[in-house]
């Protein structure tokens, strides 16, 4: 039987707050959590592993909704290949969105520079005339 821990111990071992654990649990990110008849939730090493994976996925830029779509895939099979493939798809989409934003910002910057140049020309012309 796998050792069980209460939320405080899990939080300490994972480096998160109990509030974060409760939030992730509400979102379904921690999988099935055992609740004893005394009302306490007991967590296993699986929950700890999931918390570590959530932190990694957050660091690489996934939102909690995106993490929710991949977290179970990481624990379906030992190679975690399905989860990794899904993360690749998400990151590729992020890259496309970032490229589109950068293109839009570059165009906006050109428009601002054109307006600055146009107004500067008018100011220079007005300043040099008697």
From TrEMBL:
Domain HTH merR-type: 4-73
Pfam families from the UniProt entry: MerR_1 (PF13411)
Domain of life: Bacteria
PROSITE patterns linked: HTH_MERR_1, HTH_MERR_2
Keyword set, alphabetical order: DNA-binding, Repressor, Transcription, Transcription regulation
Protein name listed in UniProt: MerR family transcriptional regulator
Organism: Paenibacillus hodogayensis
